[in-house]
Amino acid sequence: MAAPVVFILGAGPNVGTSIASKFAAEGWKVAAASRSPKDEIKKIAHHTIAADFSDSEKITSLYAEVEAKLRTPNVVIYNAYLVAFSPDGSNPFSFSVAEYAKDIAVNTTSVYAAASAALAGFHKLPEAAPKVFIYTGNMQSSLIVPEVVSLGAGKNASAYLMETAATAYGAKFQFYYADERLPDGRPVMAALSGEAHAEYYFELATKKKQGPWDATFVKGVGYTKFDAERDREVTPAGVLIKHVKNASRP
């Protein structure tokens, strides 16, 4: 039987490369797209693509290239993001419209394009084959961080896309908004674990049926439901960073 295919959009040096390595080790064919593919991912992936995720119209052609070079992807992972910090931290509307639009293109418009392409591909696959779309989210779907409003707006929009897709197609295909957390439910911020993402994403990729679309998980534990997942707490970035540093101390 032919090896299944995973397509990773946003195959960076931490999470993306770790995911690629895990799937390759499990016998999957790996396609990886990033702005400038590094040597490490080129050694792991069976096909790499240089891609600009701010150009949402090109996402379909990336998917078509993977189909042509490998096969129709069974699992599509959208791990790309773009973040700009507010020039005036106290004013979340101090971005230029052009900056905001570029962030939104990467953080949600291209997600829509990728999910649409994946959905069309899933219909081509055998009934028993894996058919999963995973979006790398963060806690901004339930947390307000004014300094990075464009990232938060994109994450919220993409969370809505994943919830809608899981509701509409969950009987046949799977869609997830994956969000790594600290054990107390707080965000991991930049302390993302590539290994934890790789292990959990492979678990999601091999599930037989749709699980909770809001796939919050903890390193070494896996899926963990947090009661306050819909709370809209306002927290400055500095406070979050301090919390992560304290949580990581022995």
How would you portray this structure in words?
By secondary structure, the chain is α/β, with parallel strands linked by helices. Helix content is 39%, strand content 17%. It is built from seven helices and ten strands. Helix 4 links the parallel strand 4 and strand 5. The chain is globular and about 55 Å long.
Share of β-strand residues? 15-25%
Give the proportion of residues in helices: 25-40%
Counting helices, strands and paired strands, the structural category is: alpha/beta
Output the helix-strand order.
EHEHEHEHEEHEHEEEH
- Report, as a whole number of angstroms, the end-to-end distance: 47 Å
Number of strands: 10
Weakly predicted, low-confidence segments = 240-250
Using the CA coordinates, give the radius of gyration: 17 Å
Please summarize the sheet with the most strands: 8 strands, mixed
Number of helices: 7
Major sheet: order of its strands?
3-2-1-4-5-7-8-9
Shape: globular
Q: What is the average of the pLDDT values? A: 90
